[in-house]
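Work package 3, deliverable 3.1, input record:
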Amino acid sequence: MVSVASTSPAPAEAFDVARPWRLSPEVSLREEPFGALAYHHGNRRLVFVKSAGLVALLGRLGEYASARDALGALVAPGERARYERALAALAAGGLLGVG
Amino acid sequence: MSAESGLRDRLEGGLTAPICLTWELTYACNLACAHCLSSSGRRDPHELSTSEALALVDELAAMRVFYVNVGGGEPMIRRDFFDIVEHAVERRVGVKFSTNGTRLDAAAARRLAAMDYLDVQVSIDGADAATNDRVRGAGSYAAARRAMDHLAAAGFAGFKVSVVVTRDSVEQLDALESLAASYGAQLRLARLRPSGRGVAVWDALRPTAAQNRRLHAWLVERPHVLTGDSFFHLSPLGAPLEGLNLCGAGRVVCLIDPVGDVYACPFVIHDRFRAGNVRASGFGPIWRESALFAELRAPNSPGACASCASYDACRGGCLAAKFFTGLEADDPDPECVFGHGERRLATTRVELRPTPSIDHSRVRALGAPGRLR
């Protein structure tokens, strides 16, 4: 659902779904026919977000007290594990921060 | 990682805006490198004014172009160079700019080091003055090293040392890597293309097939060496290299030249690949609607490569390298690792290769700079 086209080293912060994860203010997110492109201006990482559902989740992540709450409100139960892994990958790339 | 095929098909169909684009700020240059992609030298009297350049930045920002690769010519020759790049990073259009370093003094280095979202690439085409200066001109190695000294002294972390891989420089990769490391810099390698003045030197300077094989193995072992997706034609040699591994021309990248002409990529400054001019319409309509870009985004035929098991690894290679060596768009890349390009080249005539439509070289047999029609 996410692929990262860069080798820039990024801090590997453990992804705790109970925390209030947000799209980093340094990230530009641009919707595209396949989903979206996300670019981190600080670490220069380019990420392909290949799911409209994930794009929608990223757009509203900031409205919830935790990533878990956002997943619960916006993602069907059977899909949540997959979306959580995608968020963890984005967090590992520095694209999400705890806000 | 490289893009898997489903995503690559989508990328080949085009994006709402480029991921990045190359913006040559000026054709003016105080050097005359033998392989210059843009045949630079003299300033074009019609180059974009400061206000036009700043308005273009605003449009790129509105389209959310993530960053621009600023080059030339020598971009630092423009008096408004800092006005333009500072405006870009303020609008969150990142800047990666290439310089020969001749204008990069201590004060400029400090100013650059203070900016976020800005990368600097200092060009050098050999690990020693003799190798470099043969391509880039007398004194250019020393000037580039002085610029690197200034950047390091200013604390500019992780600037790039940018090298075009030639038959000579490819033998110095380890030394070039050490040189970059001595500054805390990153090495960036680019493919020599038969574009601009490179048309004339490509046959003599391009790496041999054996050198390309060694280059690929060297790069696979060093994912930290940047290549800007330059060597995807070598991917059939084994592991794909870092990057999207596709021809991005008119699909994920393009070029805006100093007078506002938009070309499919930095390596095809030629009428055949000119999509429009930003003065007439702005950039967005050209990117979204030009007939040329629609053509480049249409599913392409593998042509002569259809029966090759490695087609998916290289997608037929570089459009520009094919065009300027007289090959068709669906021919193999002239440097195809299986030699298919070489065999095809042998059937073409060097004197029938396309010549650049524009040339701003300062020393030229045909008179004043400008369009050659």
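The two ends of chain B are 43 Å apart (CA to CA).
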